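Example pasted here:
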Amino acid sequence: DDAVLALAVSPDGKRLASGGCDRVVRVWDINGGILDAKLDQTIENHADWVFGVAFAGDGKHLVTCSRDKTAKVWDLSTKESVMTFPDHQNPVFGVAVKADGKVGYSGGDDKQLRMWNAGADGKQIRAVGGHGDAILKLVQHPKMPLLVTASADKTVRIWNADNGSAVRTLGGLTDQAFAIAISGDGALVAAGSYAGEVNVWKVADGTVVKAFNASPGYVKK
């Protein structure tokens, strides 16, 4: 009955990972369709709510983050944590991993976008600022070396995934940006806010192509 706070689909589309308020990460077999999902495995290691899950490009590793101030890399074949990204002093709300699995990304309550050496020693590569409040979600662009973050500062930002430099800021929301998604072709990014707004922008130049109210209350996914 606990809330689900994070979802991610594997690169091959055959598995779904979920995490939430019960602190458990679950991996589901959805090869037969999402309506026929079968629980494949559970990972019970985080000490607090799980806010983010992301598959590595090989589909064999999963990155998770939690209110317990950790971000971890898991080997799904063993259900063992193979790496913990250090230096987080605050809750971590979003994670992503580069397609080749060599670089991990995290964002959270400290407002910093952090880049980690996920392919070797887990050490931090760099931390960059820009948001004026917590980073609440983090998504990797499917086709370009870009990251997109949503923040409690009411903005969405696009970053260069290779060096962490800021590309552009997407505004127009009147409340905290809670959810982000990128279109399959990579041309559009959408964000939902605590006020129930949904804005859609062009990735190329930040132009707003659609803005509407999706529901009374906040948009979480």
Notes: The two ends are 18 Å apart (CA to CA). The chain has a mean pLDDT of 92. The chain has two domains: 1-130, 132-220. The chain has no helices and 20 strands.
